[in-house]
Amino acid sequence: MYAAESRYLAAGGPGKASFAELAPFFAEDVVLHQADALPYGGLWRGHDGMERFFVAMSKTWESFEMVRQEFLATEGPLVVLTDVHAHARATAKEIDFRILQTITVTGGRISEVRPFYWDTAAIAAVTG
């Protein structure tokens, strides 16, 4: 899923890439919880919600590179620590930050994602 997400964002998002490559990784009733302070914050539900989320991400970030990932837990919910280097579309500013995610997998597909950002204010400031 992370490789497909990187390809989607690198291609330029909607109109240049298709959500169809990402859809098989997500349960039909998937729920993504994003911090409200982010430009793409809120609760995203189902494939339609995930597709809208990736559109919002593509509008926010010119590039979003997952520099390093460490899987801290591979059972129960998965726990993934990711170092990100991102380039904001609106401001042309760059930022490095970490995300810690818990990911629930049901029937081989992602059913819930809960990311934690250490500093949402810094991300919001860079993205304008």
Key words describing this protein structure:
single chain, 128 residues, Nuclear Transport Factor 2, Chain: A, 6-stranded mixed β-sheet, 3 helices
Structure overview:
The protein has 128 residues and is an alpha+beta fold. The chain has a single domain (2-127), classed as Nuclear Transport Factor 2, Chain: A, CATH 3.10.450. 26% of the residues lie in helices and 46% in strands. The protein has a 6-stranded mixed sheet. The longest helix has 15 residues, at 46-60. It is globular and about 40 Å long. The mean pLDDT is 92.
Order of the strands making up the biggest sheet: 2-1-6-5-4-3
CATH architecture: Roll
User: Number of helix segments?
Assistant: 3
Portion of residues within helices: 25-40%
The assigned structural class equals alpha+beta
What fraction of residues sit in β-strands? over 45%
Look at the structure and give the CATH class. Alpha Beta
Globally, the shape reads globular
Number of strands: 6
N→C terminal distance: 28 Å
What is the radius of gyration computed over CA atoms, rounded to a whole number of angstroms? 14 Å
Show unreliable segments: none
Mean pLDDT: 92
